[in-house]
Design brief:
Length: 275
């Protein structure tokens, strides 16, 4: 009964997280972009029915800017996370099947990247490649693969010595056949979980790098830019410029993180019995 209760709870929280993500996506698609235009006669309006998140110093609707910014962060986070997962999959497979030299090289690179804080390395990479969305995506992709690589490598090492793989090898099946029929399908759930768990990190790092001026362009409605610009107006009492975008960013990140943790539990039934 406890197991069923935990599964029911996982299902409910997963549906709630997906509903939050779908709502943000649907609002960003269906929302008119006119709220991003300057309207000087509506400057600095506090939250109201017409403008639930208020307006900024240029009369732009903060709800529109926030939703468009979340959608932009979501796109950047998904692309960056997917790129990082691809790198992790390739590195993990290479370390497990290409011999001791490649294994040692991958282990050394993994330890090297894990020894340096993500944000520091991301800043350096983003600066070198010129910043912008391209810099963020490349930076996240090159800094978030090590932890997942270790998981993939361990999974591949375990699969290689599984009885069904040994049987396929004894029947003369090629390494490519074994990889495509046994190894890669087994890794897909791990890669999916890794993607969902990497995306919130990518979104937060994108917002942080953009906040300090080395990320997305100031002309884009990015959450980092919104929060950075709002700092200059908080002292004048315009609290809504930072509060609502910040809370929405945390809600987006939390929804992704919850979905990833729940999916990890579904993929590994042993974890479900621990609750």
């Amino acid at each position: 009964m406890r197991w069923l209760h935990d599964r029911h709870k996982l299902a409910l929280t997963s549906v709630a997280a997906m509903l939050v993500l779908f709502t943000i996506f649907a609002m960003s698609v269906g929302m008119d972009s006119s709220g991003l235009s300057t309207s000087l006669n509506q400057r600095n309006f506090a939250p109201s029915v017409a403008h639930p998140f208020g307006t900024d110093w240029l009369g732009r609707d903060m709800l529109t800017r926030t939703i468009k910014g979340l959608a932009l962060s979501l796109r950047v986070g998904v692309v960056a996370g997917a790129s990082s997962v691809i790198i992790a999959g390739i590195m993990g497979l290479a370390a497990a099947v290409m011999g001791k030299t490649v294994n040692r090289l991958v282990s050394w690179l993994t330890d090297l990247f894990l020894s340096v804080p993500h944000l520091v390395t991301l800043l350096l990479i983003a600066f070198v490649v010129g910043g912008g969305a391209k810099g963020i995506i490349i930076g996240v992709a090159l800094t978030h693969w090590p932890a997942l690589t270790r998981v993939i490598r361990a999974e591949v090492m375990q699969i290689r010595f599984a009885p069904y793989v040994s049987i396929s090898r004894n029947f003369g099946k090629s390494s490519w056949w074994i990889a495509t029929r046994h190894i890669i399908p087994h890794l897909l759930p791990q890669l999916l979980v890794g993607l969902i768990l990497i995306v919130p990190h990518a979104i937060l790092h994108e917002a942080a790098v953009t906040f300090i001026g080395m990320g997305l362009s100031p002309h884009e409605p990015a959450i980092g830019i919104i929060l950075s610009e709002s700092m200059r107006y908080l002292s004048s009492g315009m609290w809504w410029l930072a509060l609502f975008p910040g809370l929405c960013l945390l809600l987006l990140v939390r929804a992704f993180a919850m979905l990833g943790e729940n999916l990890k539990t579904w993929v590994d039934p042993r974890r479900a019995h621990e609750h």
